[in-house]
Amino acid sequence: MAERAEPIKPRSGPKRDFAPWADLAALPLVRFEQVTKRFGAISAVDRLSLDIFAGEFFALLGPSGCGKTTLLRLVAGFEAPEEGRILLEGADLARTPPYRRPTNMMFQSYALFPHLTVEQNIAFGLEQERMPKPQVDARVAEMLALVKLEGFSRRKPDQLSGGERQRVALARALAKRPKVLLLDEPMAALDKKLRGETQFELIELQARLGTTFVIVTHDQEEAMVLADRMAVMERGRIVQVGTPAEIYEQPNSRYVADFVGDVNLLEGRLATTGPGESLVHGNGGVALRIAQPVDAAPGALVWVALRPEKVRIGIARPAEAHENALAGTVVDVGYLGNLSVYKVRLDDGALMKASVGNQARAIERAIGWNDRVWLSWPPEAAIVLTR
Amino acid sequence: MLGKAGTAGGVSRWRGAVVIPYAWLIAFFLVPFLIVFKISLSETAIAQPPYLPVLDFSAGWDGFKRFLAGLSFENYTALASDRLYLAAYLKSLEVAAFSTLMLLVLGYPFAYAMARAPRRLQAMLVMLVVLPFWTSFLIRVYAWINILQRDGLLNQMLLAFGLVEEPVGWLSTNTAVYIGIVYSYFPFMVLPLYAALEKIEVSLHEAAADLGAPPWKAFWGITVPLSRPGIVAGSLLCFIPIVGEFVIPDLLGGSATLMIGQTLWTEFFANRDWPIASAVAVALLCLLIVPILIYQHQQARAIEQGR
User: Fold this and answer.
1) Full set of structural domains in chain B with CATH
2) How many contacts (CB atoms, under 8 Å) link A and B?
3) pTM of the predicted structure, to 2 decimals
């Protein structure tokens, strides 16, 4: 790791065709094999297996207490698994102490050394590997430029704003050119606007460096914006792994559908299923058409999942015969500026949401409270969940 | 910052509160000090009070002038020229410095272990460190006489384990003084160290390890510098009173360990030489002003950084 620092070159083009997880021959950079970590009687991580590939921006998403941070700490070496193995480039990490692992962590609290200047904080890791002074200085300058903090080198952490501290933490974690950068809720302490800007800078940085980033977040939007792939976790286990689009469009359970984005879940019984079309009998007796086969026996309890933005709302019943249509009454209209969200009480008592983009500057909305409306969507818009 | 917090009335009330510590210091430190300082400039007399001159208010301005003319720095010259005093000062500094070092070496691992103990245990450990204060200091030092005497607990144990052939004469030695001092001042070293160490976030240790620092390097590079305020506070809290320590060397030490506190006692009570005793005290204070100023500077810096 002590060789001459190469200046960072921008990667050619965006990460368009980047999908090492789809390549069966590709070897993962980090592999979890049936990893279990318990705290007392609670399994923070429960027989978890996962592959993360070199160059990925990977997000671990889940509510607090789902084990995502523990997973990160297991890679860093601050926790040791009770069962299973964690492999880095095929080698078991079990016997490697944290200070010998080629991983670096950006802490949620940033954990900057308060008695050291920005410069000394960034240099700390480099000095541990006895890098010669001129190289350390060059690398520190490079890192400061990378996070746009030139001129801040002599400041102490308590003389920095929250956003600046966050950048120092990032620079310090990247200075050693880790094989994997672990980010523990890196933007939790930033305000919303700064978070948005920082997210895009982080994406750009990751693409330029090509370093594998593993980020832990409870913010589904953040995970979707940042990640090439994401894992949705629940109680120490991974519920689903996939690209943000896969997770959003093809959630494998009500838990994932509900956690990632907004969703309408309509309970029903599967009537018929075939390669091109399935039919679900909703609770109100209506038949819902779905343009996909369902892996369940007819009569099984299923849920039709439908994103609010895929629902059309209108005063008249839609003309297309194959469209699914449900009648109801508007009980709430939420104006969010860029879109309006309608909450509709269906005639069977269920509540559904429909969101409509506000293209025109419609001050007076055509649909308002207590209006009778029709909600409709094509069969391709919804999916059926069996759990 | 504080002005912003309150209304005009609140600010003036807050300013009024400042008077309290000043009034306290004037009444219980400055005035007594001036009295002692005045006595140190007097000369002994077989009288009541046992020194001259005494300010005679009835004599008016002339009396005051005569009073001023009667003062002299003779006692300080005597102090500087007599090897006995110099030796006692040096001995006190030596004992204080060496004891403080021992306290630091023993107290640091102790405080570190306390700070790293599970949260719910920490309060209890602090309690245990403070617990000896519930017994009188004098009684605890007397207890050490019992432990250290020829047929005391320590010798009995050493004999039982076969570590010594015959009882060791612990009492009236430097060792006994050091044992007594280290034992008595231990909480004063441990508590500031613990307070400083306990404040260091665990994530800083993790960050140091994450950046490639093995435990001992993380300790020297992160833990020690961050606990510096505790090291300084603990050292000064021990060093300053140990220099003037009287009870421990008097009860446990022999005639070889004559510290300045004992010299002062002798001058005052045995020789009834108040002026020279006062001069010893004033000189001691001047000697200790240096570390006190260092301590103050440190405190001010810590407060500055804490903001």
Assistant:
1) 18-72 (no CATH), 82-306 (1.10.3720.10)
2) 62
3) 0.79
